Prior knowledge:
Elements: E1 3-5, H1 14-23, E2 29-31, H2 45-51, E3 61-62, E4 64-65, H3 70-82, E5 87-92, H4 97-101, H5 112-129, E6 132-140, H6 146-155, E7 162-168, H7 179-188, E8 193-196, H8 202-212, E9 219-221, H9 223-227, H10 231-235, H11 244-261, H12 265-279, H13 287-293, H14 299-310
The structure holds flavin mononucleotide.
Residues 6-11, 33-34, 64, 91, 93-94, 136, 165, 173, 196-199, 221-224 line the site of flavin mononucleotide (FMN).
Amino acid sequence: MNIYFAPLEGITGYIFRNAFNEIYGHIDKFFAPFISPSEKCPLTPREMKDLTPENNHGINLIPQILTCRSEHFIEAAIELKKIGYNEINLNLGCPSGTVCAKGKGAGFLPQTTDLQKFLDDIYAYSESEGTKISIKTRLGYYSPEEFYDLAEIFNGYPVSELIVHPRIRGDFYKGEPRKEFFAYALEHVKCPLVYNGDIRTLKGYDELCASFNTKLDPVMIGRGLISDPLLADKLGGSDAGSDPERFRLFHDTLYHEYQKVMSPDINVLYKMKELWSYWAVMFEDNSRDIKKLLKTKKCAEYEDIVYSKLLLK
Ligand SMILES: Cc1cc2nc3c(=O)[nH]c(=O)nc-3n(C[C@H](O)[C@H](O)[C@H](O)COP(=O)(O)O)c2cc1C
């Protein structure tokens, strides 16, 4: 089965992707966190560093663009094509206040007339250049019923894949996904459809498939793969069991790679603590150690807790 790693801004950058791909694998596509092209600059040097093929060896990477201006999308797509990318994802789901206030991400969804003009332009570019464009969307901004019109709009374009996170903007990433609207998508969307949202276990995936009466494939997973890096293995049918040595290698690789490119300690620890907030579910018996770890300010203190309490040899 095909598993796509969801983009998580601040987490799934190139260092994370490389470590995950080498140590766990089983990911068919990694979606890069969004880039937000502007008037003067289709890609910042930092965004270029994250996307350059040199930093993404052996990874099937799909760059993602967040904008409501077709000329900015196309300029960025041209730059990305120069470095070898022939598939690009459009972000129509970001719920952040600052993003939506600018009419981008989920904030673009209610502007259906402008959205259609935008899609006319980018799909004209896509057809002329042979670049595939997929879309990652929510059901709507204010209400999930917006999805009825949105599905019809998307059906008017050669969308290479439509990834649906069945929530509305105000749901952010919480509450039950609105599955009945994904069921609607399964019936009415013409292009290949990808489910995204709250897949955390094999059992959860099986129940989700049963509720739709179909095997969901591909699926996109974000938080579930961070909390359980073996989830892709499990969904693919190999019962990997727990594997502390592999997890330690994953941790150490991330920690050392972040140390190489970041300083002072607090910046490295910020990255690692964000990961531990997901990994905590694997260490339920160590909740006090994790609490302490989340308060550390120096690498030495962090290492002391990690290697004496959490990742024992
Ligand atoms: C911290 C964080 C950062 C995210 N960054 C992005 C992003 O850059 N682009 C995007 O399309 N979605 C982004 N998302 C949404 C995820 O890709 C995904 O749709 C969401 O987490 C639901 O899937 P999951 O339950 O499998 O994690 C982000 C989510 C989180 C929690």
